[in-house]
Q: What sequence folds into this?
């Protein structure tokens, strides 16, 4: 399946969460990742995110689609993922 | 159509952008809005966002779907939209 993941976590945990997600998905913008992922791997990612975040403060939104073909994506302004190696 | 909109704009412009988007979409998390929107209204929103943001610095991602029925949404941690009136 294909997912869009957006996180809003405390600054103390941002770096760890971001570094972890880079191993599984593609960074597209500040706090936003995307990518194709298997059901099993997604389950692992969700489980790991529960450990890396604080459930009464942080929030991670995961939008799942069967395929990115249902999705039309557009950017206004700069494409920040060009800078992904810098962040 | 249904859209998910995620912005990453300079702190000087966040408040204005957020306030503007609240008139057209539903706030779901820090920097994330969602909602049903007509093609015409979306065109207006995009045009207004181009004026409200700085194209060489800010970035607004818009994911469009024909219907939210293709989308499965899940939250890890807190559902921040419960607090939307406070922000």
A:
């Amino acid at each position: 399946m294909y997912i869009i993941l957006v996180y809003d976590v405390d600054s103390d945990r941002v770096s760890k969460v971001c570094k972890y997600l880079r191993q599984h998905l593609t960074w597209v913008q500040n706090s936003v990742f995307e990518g194709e992922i298997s059901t099993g791997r997604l389950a692992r990612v969700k489980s790991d995110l529960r450990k890396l975040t604080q459930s009464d403060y942080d929030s991670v939104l995961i939008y799942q689609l069967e395929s990115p073909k249902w999705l039309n994506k557009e950017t206004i302004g700069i494409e920040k993922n060009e800078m992904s190696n810098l962040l």
The first helix of chain A runs from residue 11 to 22. Chain A has a mean pLDDT of 92. Residues 16 and 52 of chain A are 7 Å apart (CA to CA). Chain A touches chain B through 37 residues (CB under 8 Å).
